[in-house]
Design a protein that fits this description.
It is built from 13 helices and 14 strands. It is an alpha/beta fold. It is globular, with a radius of gyration of 22 Å. The chain binds pyridoxal-5'-phosphate. Pyridoxal-5'-phosphate binds next to helix 4.
Length: 418
């Protein structure tokens, strides 16, 4: 199997060097080259349409990272963009008082998300997770938080602790996904101190295989949180609107006290939300202060309402599940056939190809080679983060990708198993 030729990335590299003189780190955290394969992936995109994106050197890719989650339908979705443009041109969106669209969105969430009795809207996923823990602390009058998963960049939960006094995160404890015993132990050790348990309802640990909830796991988490009078929060920032229109809570049939949504809520427009039981959410009326200049801006509400309308009208999630089932199934067959120590995990709307650790660390080289061969074939997947299927990925896109994966696996087979 011939090696695919390296892409021309001249403009990306030039722009990156220039950016280093203007912006610390040049591009933000997870978008830095070391999160991909350095020197092989583009660093700047120019445009996107549907499930495809084009970099500033003119290379066009099938995009399975979907902007790290927001692109649930696809780029430049005309119906959504036109609704936003109409709002800009006919009414405006940034005022000293609120327009009515947040009521409409809160009502919609109440209709589709099991735990959504009342909602509060913010701009990012990190805003939402932080607000949810503040509400839970106020409601329970307790301090400690037990968490599982990535919840954003704010002081209480970010992994890299630079610039954050210990007192801002020392009351936050962690347990592993699917480890109900570990959670129980933490709750017992911190009796009467835990305000909230916040957990992603599906397991998506960084750079590791994704995890289905073990039978009974989510139910047990709910039972334990209730027993210890801690608020149960599902972090649905990735699963929201993707696993089902009502979130993973609807799909798995376990309703938390509160949930946070973001990413796919508005097909790329910035919005996040905390939603949950009235009694808990009402803390925001008096005891919890939350206000920000841009929270009430209407464009993202308009985009979210339109996104939900399309998701429901066109049965988008059924389409995504169908595509994902086919895609993941074909990839699984190839991984079995070529047997290079890689596997696919996840569920149809979100999947991840990872390499099993081996003693001499060859898996790292195999991973680098595999993702290098894929990007050279214009398939944009990330070596350390799972991918997503969006509605505008076509059957041809999927088949092209399956073929590119087969060629990349053949390359590995020949290189590592002579
Ligand atoms: C599960 C989860 N929670 C919270 C966040 C934070 O969201 P944001 O990056 O929009 O602040 C993320 C972002 O990736 C996430 O995946």
């Amino acid at each position: 199997m011939k090696e695919a030729p390296k892409l021309n990335l001249t403009n990306s590299m030039k722009e990156f060097e220039y950016a280093k003189t203007l912006i610390p780190g040049a591009v933000a955290g997870i978008r830095r080259p070391y999160n991909f394969v350095e020197g092989e992936y583009p660093i700047y995109f120019d445009n996107g349409k549907g499930g495809r994106v084009t970099d500033i050197d003119g290379n066009e890719y099938i995009d399975y990272l979907c902007a790290y989650g927001p692109m649930i339908i696809g780029n430049r979705e005309e119906e959504i963009d036109n609704a936003v443009i109409a709002q800009m041109q006919e009414k405006g969106f940034c005022f000293s008082l609120t327009q009515k669209y947040q009521n409409m969105l809160a009502e919609k969430l109440k209709e589709i998300v099991p735990c959504a009795e009342m909602s509060f809207f913010v701009t990012t996923g990190s805003d939402a997770t932080t607000l949810s823990t503040r509400i839970a602390r106020s409601y329970t009058q307790k301090t400690k938080i037990i968490r599982c998963g990535y919840h954003g960049w704010h002081d209480w939960c970010v992994e890299v602790k630079g610039g954050i006094p210990k007192k801002l995160w020392e009351d936050v404890l962690e347990f592993e996904y699917n480890d109900a015993e570990g959670l129980e132990k933490l709750l017992e050790e911190n009796k009467d101190e835990v305000a909230a348990v916040i957990v992603t309802p599906y397991g998506h640990p960084l750079a590791l295989p994704m995890e289905d909830p073990k039978p009974g796991f989510l139910e047990k988490v709910k039972e334990l949180a209730a027993k210890h009078k801690a608020v149960l929060i599902f972090d649905e920032i990735r699963t929201g609107f993707r696993v089902s229109i009502g979130g993973a809570q609807k799909y798995y049939g376990v309703t938390p006290d509160m949930a946070v949504f973001g990413k796919a809520m508005a097909n790329g427009y910035p919005i996040g939300c905390v939603t949950g039981k009235t009694e808990i959410m009402k803390e925001v009326e008096k005891n919890v202060f939350v206000s920000s200049t841009f929270f009430p801006n209407s464009l993202s509400y308009i985009a979210s309402l339109k996104t939900i309308e399309i998701l429901q009208r066109d049965k988008i999630l059924e389409q995504i599940w169908e595509k994902g089932e086919y895609f993941n199934g074909e990839i699984a067959k190839l991984l079995e056939k070529y047997d290079v120590g890689a596997r696919i995990s996840g569920i149809p709307p979100m999947m991840f190809i990872t390499f099993d650790k081996d003693e001499d660390g060859t898996y790292k080289a195999k991973r680098t080679d595999f993702y290098t061969q894929l990007i050279r074939r214009k398939v944009f997947l990330q070596p350390y983060h799972h991918g997503y299927i969006c509605a505008r990925h076509t059957k041809e896109d999927l088949d092209y990708t399956i073929n590119a994966i087969e060629e990349s696996l053949q390359y590995l087979r020949e290189k590592y198993y002579k």
